Amino acid sequence: MTSETPDLECRELSKSFDNFKAVKDISLSVPQGTFFSILGPSGCGKTTLLRMIAGFQKPTSGDLLIKGKSVLDVPPNKRPVSMVFQHLALFPMMNIGANVGFGLRQRGVNKTDIEKQVTRVLERVGLGGVADRPVSSLSGGQKQRVAIARCMVLEPDVLLLDEPLGALDLKLREHMKIELKQLQSEFNTTFVYITHDQSEALVMSDQIAVMNNGEFEQTGTAKELYYEPSTAFVAGFVGEANRFSATVRNRSGDGLQMATAQGQELRGMDASGGLSVGDTVDVFVRPEAVRLSRKEQDISGLGNSGQGTVENVLFNGANSQLILRDQQTGAEMSVALPQTGEFRDLSRGDLIHFGWEHQQTRVYAATGGRDDD
Amino acid sequence: MTTDRSKLAFWLLMAPLLIWLVTLIILPHVGMFLVSLREKVGVREYETSFANYAVFLNEPLYWNTFARTAYMSIAATILTLLIGFPIAYYIAKLTRGRTKTTLFLMCLIPFWVSELVRTFGWMILLRETGVFSNALQYLGLAAGPVELLYNDAAIMTGLVYTSMLFMVVPLVTTLDSLDDSLIEAGYDLGASGFGILRQIVIPHAMPGIVSGCIVVFMLSLGNYLTPILLGGKDSLWFTGMIYSQFITRFNWELGSAFGFLLLGLSSLIVFVGLKLTGQSLGKTMVQT
Predict the structure, then answer these.
(1) Distance in angstroms (rounded) separating the CA atoms of residues B128 and B125
(2) Closest Cβ–Cβ partner in A77, A87, A94 for B192
(3) Does the pLDDT of residue B69 top 80, yes or no?
């Protein structure tokens, strides 16, 4: 069923507001049936990009193709895309059935067919028999499903989702992530999902584009972004990371040897290529890549190691973290606390050895004083 | 102890409202109703009967005027709605910040002068030697002076102008509360501009439309100044009839009956209007 032409394609799409370039020459291509996420901090231009795809905003330059056809001159009510809005935008003046059937009514489908299709799509999202109820009688998660059903009943080529989980509470959000993914594979429709929440993007997406300052920093699968971030921004934004500033001392192949201003020795991999001796660099290491041990010999084989005092234990069940202060350099770092029971009695002021492999250390040219999110 | 106090506070707070309602609304109406039921049978001799109401039914001029006042008021209300809705939509949805405030103020400013002055303003524009007449002659579109006053169109213009604000304000309030994303969602799902207006904007604005219409209708029906000044002697407005019964003919009995008929008429039309649009008075008042 998958055809050669991608469902959605952007070619050097740009949007400027007065002097501000919100979206800069973005090119992307989303094959049929893909769950594509655009992940970025607020204000990075992702909403503008989505609104351009939906047709609410006109690109300043570039081209936008759906199923291989340019839709630049197609108004939003004629585009084969549907959008799930951030606050869902269900029509409060209509009951659930009328909401879902709204798009079909605009197309002039006859009444019995509308009723049939509405019933079918509501059953598919697990809400059979609610068509006559008012929208206000639904819970947050059910409203979400009605909003998706309202779009899916039109069988759009691309479904756009504008952070629809933002308004839900944490527990429900976790649940809806899985449900959205299931709905997507069931309908086998191309989803374009924008979010600032990395875990939403990582869990659901086939492809993720990380967006910053109107540009795509990197596009790839969740694993690629997590294990092989190609820019410092991605390394800092996707997943947690400890960041050090250092200077390159030595280079052999892709391996680098560096030293921080405090004199800490670090070993890592040149992630973006082209670094040479003397460069100032940003070094990223994930808290979960750091190994802890009470005995020094356990970690002596690792590329980077040290000894630190426990500054704080941020207990959060499976996501517990340890704030360590390196004894030698005074640098602070956060380390994921393994829940194997071994470190259960660890508390403030304790001394512990830590270390990590140099392959797990990714090094980028320093970008200046930018903080990771 | 505390409940006694809060009860006292409650009655003290309610007192001005109750005094106002009882002394200025309820008592005069009760008095007027009793007056309307009096039939004069001789000098200072009265009997209780519906004779005054019978006079109204037996004299075609009276109930013709009555009906004319009703449909002219309804027409004025509909016209005000048709003109006011796009204005309100523009102010509420298509402008932001300063422009919005400015436009809103521009609707409000005419109401800083009294209704009398505003109506005189229209007379200056419309009379035989007025601005429009002179302009038409100057442009060669009319041979001689044109009298634009003293007809139904002039009355209608005055009524619409006088009540515009009372339509625009509730409409702006309800349209303001319409989430823009609902309009976008409708558009996204394939609706045309007209479809969105009919299925999303108007249903949402219905409480505002209804409350605006009620106010404008009441104001038009009970308006005395505008129809008399702009319509002249032939304006045939029911309030004018009431006035002449009370003031020129000293027939308080008939005047009171007319007053009650007008009250009944306005209540009936508002009731029918609410039923037709499926709104309730409570809902309308809460939402605006």
Answers:
(1) 9
(2) A77
(3) yes
